[in-house]
Amino acid sequence: MLSKSHLNILWSCVVSVFLVGAIIGSCCAGWTANKIGRRPTLLLNSAIGLVSAAVFAVARVACSVEMIILGRLLVGVFSGIGSSVGPLYMMETGPSHLRGALGVLQQLGLCVGILIAQILGQKDILGNTTNWPILLSAYSCFIAIGLLTLLFCPESPAYLYIRMGEYNKAFKELEKLRGYSATLLHSDVLLLRTERKMNESCSWTIMKVLKDPLVRKSLFAVCIMHLGQQLCGINAVIYYSTSTFLKIGMSSTQSQYGSIGTGLANVVMAFVSVPLVNSCQRRNLILVSICSVACSLVLLTISMALQSLSPALSYVIIIFSLCFVLGYGIGLGPLPFMIGSELFQQGPRATGMGLGCLANWLANFIVALTFPLLQQLLDQYVFLIFATFTVFLGIYLYKYLPETKNINPVDLSSFFYSSVSEDQV
Fold first, then answer.
1. Phi, psi of 345 (to 5 degrees)
2. Biggest distance spanned by C-alpha atoms of the chain
């Protein structure tokens, strides 16, 4: 029989090993996507996801906590690869006028998945001692649907044309995607040829990306956005929403429904962001999102600090929590993945996006590790730390992030070239 302290250590291992797996997956994503292709990487990743679900399903029968840890590690690898290669594949296969909408679909799927998990995780549904193996492996249904769909999807024409030099095959895949002959797709073909000329002599390893001053500027901007996405405190608000609602006086049932309400608000904003990102400038959208998130965090802290003065402030806390989620959903949530794919040319894109997602998962790990301790030490004032990070993120992006809407990566490179030249002067 394990002691309470040993159980806490075991629980920490089970929770944190997912993020370790995600970090591993992010590190491997760029190399794998370049080595075997975008579509084969996603097919392989789907297989990893199905294996992880199978491990969860049999863990109880085997009476093995080690299998739960293994399942968490594998699903972490699955998440790390998917968060890197998924947006990359959609960006490279989608038409330029739908690039914004396609770029935020991953965030929409993520938000819907979180909401479904919150609902299924209720004690009277699957969140109990009898049904938890079903709850942990239920995501395999969505992976299976995605896998079957992916079997009928073409490879990225940009990958085939620019990286592999398979011109005829690239044009055939492009024709499948657009439904027209390649001779009529002048803008797509021109972009492929231009990027091919600019990347034909480079093998973009991690060290090459880190050493190239032009690409390093893009990489730094992407990593800062991914760090800010996590260090604004979204996971603290989502993951710990139930305990936060309990703390302000809600019953256990009410706090669970409040947590579901937060997840629902996240889904609503993810739906709203699809047409919004396609019609608005990306840079303005993420700056507005940052301002609303920072203000919501400050007001949330003030209302929690003054809660003892009036019971009505409990409802104000819920309102500001929802305002935080709504502000996050229009920019900080979906845009780092999408803008990241737009800032890089095809050559360094896979490696750069993999490193960006690595920064994202590392920040996620730091928040998960430190938030309970910081909340114990600082109580509600812990949210001011997140607000401070968010403000610094806004200042940096205001100064250094270019607009990417309706601008191809080749043209964007001139912005960073001028930035590098100014630094050298």
1. -75, 170
2. 71
